[in-house]
């Protein structure tokens, strides 16, 4: 079975590995059709993703087909198309029993902490499969990315009519924007890449944007908000420098949500934090309920995934292309890998 293996930073290769066996109790054997490439994968390739041990099979944004199920499985059947929720939680710790499965003490994410889906077949817990009778594999592979944005917007309790700013117009930032717009908020996109800001305006429906290279970001935000600043700010950059700077962007009594992850300390001015009584939130992954909701929204036409996919490759083409995908000049929003059945 052809498999992509990230052997070390900067080197991803195709290897033949044995196919998995029959599913055990509670398991499903799935055929991987589509794999989305996300920032976590790109950072793992570069070598600055904090949770990666090499070698590793990447791939956690998956559109899959159920091939077989083990005993005790009733939620999926062979032949069904599914999005795979890649967050493997224990179900027993305090976080899990409180419904905070994304904060499980022993959480493992496929393609990050354990081998993922850069291959044609794998065994997964059947409870992590979310069925759709109408979505195609491209759409199903995008559900996980969208879930990151949906969960972050839910964490901030974004309200209709409020103004929010999203720093970083990569896939995670775009997902935040889509769900902030769906919540009825006015969204301001902030980035240093003019082409990505143009993408936000032309393809995502964001009307206001701030080019962080063009001068003082606070002044630009004030100009767009009559001096009040956004009441919720999301940082989706994964840059410690950006995350630190973002503490001055929310309005008095506002919220800052750190969606991106940096392998560094992030500091802030405590007097300024207290003076404005800011709420600072982390947002990690998403929940099963987010997957269900997103599938329904795409099926109902309320979320359009068509603009997302800008680059495509087959599994065997990926080693020659992956390095270029890490470069901003390549213009990748979302690369999609197509998996042959061999």
The CATH superfamily title of the largest domain: Medium-chain alcohol dehydrogenases, catalytic domain
Q: Counting H and I runs of at least 4 residues, what is the number of helices? A: 10
- What is the CATH class designation of the largest domain? Alpha Beta
- CATH topology of the largest domain: the name is Quinone Oxidoreductase, Chain A, domain 1
Walk me through what this model shows:
By secondary structure, the protein is of the alpha/beta class. It folds into 2 domains: 2-131 and 308-338, Quinone Oxidoreductase, Chain A, domain 1, CATH 3.90.180; 149-282, NAD(P)-binding Rossmann-like Domain (Rossmann fold). Helices cover 28% and strands 25% of the residues. The protein is built from 10 helices and 17 strands. Strands 3, 4, 5, 8, 9, 16 and 17 form a 7-stranded mixed beta sheet that branches. Strands 12-11-10-13-14-15 form a 6-stranded parallel beta sheet, with helices on both faces. The chain has a two-stranded antiparallel ribbon with strand order 1-2. Strand 13, helix 7 (240-245) and strand 14 form a beta-alpha-beta unit. The longest helix has 20 residues, at 137-156. The radius of gyration is 20 Å and the shape is globular.
């Amino acid at each position: 079975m052809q498999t992509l293996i990230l052997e070390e930073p900067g080197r991803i290769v195709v290897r033949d590995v044995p196919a998995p066996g029959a599913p055990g109790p509670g398991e499903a054997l799935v055929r991987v059709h589509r794999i989305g490439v996300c920032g976590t994968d790109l950072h793992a390739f570069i070598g600055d993703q904090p949770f990666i041990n090499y070698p590793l099979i990447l791939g956690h944004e998956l559109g899959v087909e159920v091939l077989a199920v083990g005993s005790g499985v009733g939620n999926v059947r062979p032949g069904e198309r599914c999005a795979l929720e890649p967050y493997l939680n224990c179900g027993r710790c305090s976080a899990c029993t409180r419904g905070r499965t994304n904060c499980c003490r022993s959480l493992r994410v496929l393609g990050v902490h354990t081998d993922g889906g850069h291959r044609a077949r794998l065994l997964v817990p059947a409870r992590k499969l979310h069925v759709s009778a109408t979505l195609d594999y491209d759409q199903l592979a995008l559900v996980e990315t969208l879930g990151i944005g949906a969960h972050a917007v839910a964490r901030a309790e974004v309200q209709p009519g409020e103004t929010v700013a999203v720093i970083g117009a990569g896939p995670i930032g775009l997902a935040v924007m889509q769900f902030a717009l769906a919540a009825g908020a006015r969204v301001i996109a902030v980035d240093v890449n003019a082409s990505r800001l143009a993408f936000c305006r032309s393809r995502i429906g964001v009307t206001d944007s701030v080019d962080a290279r063009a001068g003082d970001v606070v002044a630009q935000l004030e100009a767009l908000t009559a001096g009040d600043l956004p009441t919720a700010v999301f940082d989706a950059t994964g840059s410690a420098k950006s995350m630190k700077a973002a503490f001055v962007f929310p309005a008095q009594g506002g919220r800052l949500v750190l969606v991106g992850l940096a392998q560094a300390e992030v500091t802030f001015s405590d007097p300024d934090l207290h003076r404005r009584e800011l709420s600072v939130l982390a947002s990690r992954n998403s929940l099963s309920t987010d997957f269900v909701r997103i599938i329904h929204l795409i099926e109902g036409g309320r979320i359009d995934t068509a603009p997302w996919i800008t680059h495509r490759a087959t599994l065997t083409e990926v080693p020659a292309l992956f390095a270029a995908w890490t470069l901003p000049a390549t213009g990748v929003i979302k690369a999609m890998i197509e998996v042959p059945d061999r």
